[in-house]
Amino acid sequence: ESCVREADMSTASASLALCPSRRAGRTCRGARLGPIAAASSVPPRPRKSDDAVGTLGRRCVGLILLAAPPAFAEEAARPRPVDLGSGVRGVDLIPGDPSASEASEGDAVRVLLKGRLFAKQGWVFTDDYKEGAGKDGLATPHEYVVGSGEVIRGLEIGVVGMREGGVRRVVIPPPVSYQDKTQEPVPRDFANRQRLYTTIFNPTRLANGEGDTLSTVVFDIELVRVRKQRG
Known about the structure:
The protein is α+β, with helices and mostly antiparallel strands and 231 residues long. It has helices at residues 2-18, 20-23, 35-40, 50-67, 70-77, 153-159, 190-200, 203-207, 211-214; strands spanning 82-85, 88-94, 108-117, 123-127, 142-145, 167-172, 217-227.
């Protein structure tokens, strides 16, 4: 009973916010009795059995969900991160072209990247859209063969399954992130490159047991092109 009343109150609040007549203290056209007044006019019901209470509880949940603000529906509609393998988590921000090629192991891919370092509160250490812009103003993409080891393993895992034109955000844990200074991608700017290395390969912090988080990186990957390798 109390749950029903609370749901009605939520509905009434939403109606009051939307209806200018109610805000002015008048009754909305076509509605003589508001939800709160209607609920208060219902006579008390006899005590219900446990089964009936359970049924009422389920109805209350339904009423609360119906009375929930639109923001909850929008939140539920957002894509959820999925496990891509080896601890890499990813979410597709923009789906690729369904008719375009899908990246897989052994394919040559061309991608635009934006990388953030988790240990530096999201510091952007590389951004192809800014750093890689050429004289024509267009970004310079990275190119690599998936599975060749040219880039950190997490990026190879992260691009598999993407289609051309898609954008995916991936969180890459240390085991498949930077293992040494020979791995790409790295900042084009020398100062940023040194800052990256002194953070993820910091001997003092590694000795303090921070290795599990130091090289965790977040990449936004835009797949520009997939070229299938001939067997």
